Amino acid sequence: LLRAGELVAVPTETVYGLAANALEEGAVQRIYEVKGRPARNPIIVHVASRSMARYCSSGWNWQAEQLAHEFWPGPLTIVVAKSDLIPAVVTAGGPTVGIRWPLHPFIQQLINHCGFPIAAPSANLSNQLSPTTAKHVLRTLNGRIPLIVDGGASNVGIESTVVDLSADVVRVLRPGIISEWQIAAVLGITVLPRGVSEAMLKSPGLLEKHYSPRARLIITQWRDDSALLFLAQQTGVPPHKVAVIAYEKIPRNHSFVRVAVIPHDPPAYARAIYSELHLSDEAGAELILVESIPEGPEWEGIRDRLNRASAVS
Ligand code: TXA
Ligand code: MG
Description:
By secondary structure, this protein is of the alpha/beta class. The strands form two sheets. The protein has a nine-stranded mixed sheet, with helices on both faces. It is built from ten helices and 13 strands. Residues 121-122, 130 line the site of magnesium ion.
């Protein structure tokens, strides 16, 4: 199907991807159509070796080599100057390309078997929640693509960290499970500069409202069951339309539509969060109350996604 220019949903360790032959303009164009994705939002190119990454890039430098050596295959996307082989449609007309060597064995074998790099955004409709299971993909893309490959639940659970190496300063455009701190440590830099406004222009995935469940989402804290109920009541949404995601102050007696107990270490939290949001939507929740998470670099990717999910358009 990929050789024929079709789209296929495939598993990766971060989230499911909507795959097309990255070297074929028409196939990549279809991705934008199926997702309803704005034409200005570039698509990540997936490779299965560092040599394949070098051939997609014309600016593969020592920093890229170091980060690839340390974190690939894995949840890190490296933005570098693109090579002429990559059609403009992949990079939304821009001079740079985001490249990632994913860890999931299926997509690695797929890329090796095809012999071409694979362009793939998350396999959801634009601005909606990313899928971490084949079932999540089926729910929104059923009938729009010829095949969804089920490779089990995504092990990382949130999208890759995107780091920009194409400018004078190294910058994380989208946080993820690989933290800014880890990247800085590998490159021998102490801290990476903050430049949110510029980063937002470079990576539309950083636009505020994104990665959203259908229900409204509020990140908050409560002392006990009655404080939680009071909080819910203040929003005006009846309890049977409220879902709760908690890890410490778990409500005991309640009339909420759904209460999830989510693990309290960052990797397990990341693995579970999108599934819990999908389940809250499925349960018919109008409001999701998420217990606020701790500070710290291990939480930055998760915090970013929750903040975006809670942003009011
Ligand atoms: O984990 C992931 O990254 C997943 C899996 C499928 O690999 N993919 C994913 O793709 O999340 P997508 O399209 O949903 O998000 C890609 C993000 C967007 O925010 C996009 O703007 C940014 O990466 N991006 C892609 N290419 C870029 C480039 N050349 N420069 C700046 N940002 C780029
Ligand atoms: Mg996405």
